[in-house]
Amino acid sequence: MRRVIIAGNWKMNKTSTEAVQLVKELLSKISDVKDVDMVVCPPFTSLESVAWVLGEGSVKIGAQNMHWSEGGAYTGEVSAKMLLTIGCQYVILGHSERRALFGESNADVNKKLRAALATSLIPIVCVGEKLEEREKGQTEHIVRDHVLGAFEGFSAAQLRRVILAYEPVWAIGTGKTASPEQANEVHAFIRNVLEDKFGELLAKSIRIQYGGSVKPENAASLLSQPEIDGALVGGASLDAESFSRIIKAVT
Ligand code: PEP
């Protein structure tokens, strides 16, 4: 049984004060939620203050990125250990904005994944095609390339705690969502790719979130699909009411 995981990617939004306020509001709305993994991913500057508010409660904290190196001359970067020591349990890797705006390649994602898995961080690895790639019929090719590129050199056992997020780039922040059936089809395809390369156990057990304009209005239909194990939510996670309604849509 794969446990549903809903994660909020706050991107470059919220000062520390605003972040604390948002997470307090969120906590007041989800106190009765059970059986769902919940994660918020604020900017680096708010991780520590949000971690203090969350404490040992049911909402966990994640970072939006990290560097693969343990430390050194990497101006502007942070390491896995730095994240862990301020209370992070998750880290988003290979988000399409990192790929498109900061030139992150599959090889970079692979190195970051290795560094995250060398610690106890739980990586959320993002994959997904752009609009022109979908229109050219390249969705499967791109998604396979992202998954196998990120997972290159790992064994099934090493990948057990990894979470994948299928995020069609054309659906991110655009208000366009993949239909539940479209998303489910790609998730099923990802499981086939994983089964071929890593075997049935990993393919069946790995959790795959959907991301791309998930809102309270469409969450239930997406989350009811058999291959969709949760959501990675951008815009709607910046509002406690919307994010809590998405979390509650699981049940
Ligand atoms: C995201 O950035 O991961 C995302 C899914 O954004 P949005 O929900 O705003 O489309």
The number of distinct helices, counting runs of at least 4 residues, comes to: 11
| Molecules bound to protein | phosphoenolpyruvate
Strands of the widest sheet, in order across it, are 1-2-3-4-5-6-7-8
Give the biggest beta sheet: 8 strands, parallel, barrel
User: Could you tell me the radius of gyration in angstroms?
Assistant: 17 Å
> What is the average of the pLDDT values?
97
Shape: globular
Known CATH architecture = Alpha-Beta Barrel
**What is the fourth-level CATH superfamily?**
Aldolase class I
Strand content: 15-25%
Q: Structural class, judged by helices and strands?
A: alpha/beta
Oligomer category: single chain
Order of helices and strands: EHEHEHEHHEHHEHHEHEH
What is the CATH domain class? Alpha Beta
Total domain modules: 1
Keywords:
251 residues; alpha/beta; TIM Barrel; eight-stranded parallel beta barrel; 44% helix; 15% strand; binds phosphoenolpyruvate
Word description of this protein:
The chain is of the alpha/beta class and 251 residues long. The protein has a single domain, classed as TIM Barrel (Alpha-Beta Barrel). Helix content is 44%, strand content 15%. It has helices at 16-30, 44-54, 80-85, 96-102, 106-117, 131-135, 139-151, 180-198, 200-205, 216-223, 240-248; strands at residues 5-9, 37-41, 59-63, 90-93, 122-127, 163-166, 207-211, 230-233. An eight-stranded parallel β-barrel has the order 1-2-3-4-5-6-7-8, surrounded by six helices. Helix 1 (16-30) runs parallel beside helix 11 (240-248), helix 7 (139-151) crosses helix 8 and helix 10 runs parallel beside helix 11. The radius of gyration is 17 Å and the shape is globular. The two termini are 15 Å apart. The structure holds phosphoenolpyruvate. The site of phosphoenolpyruvate (PEP) has 13 residues, from strand 8.
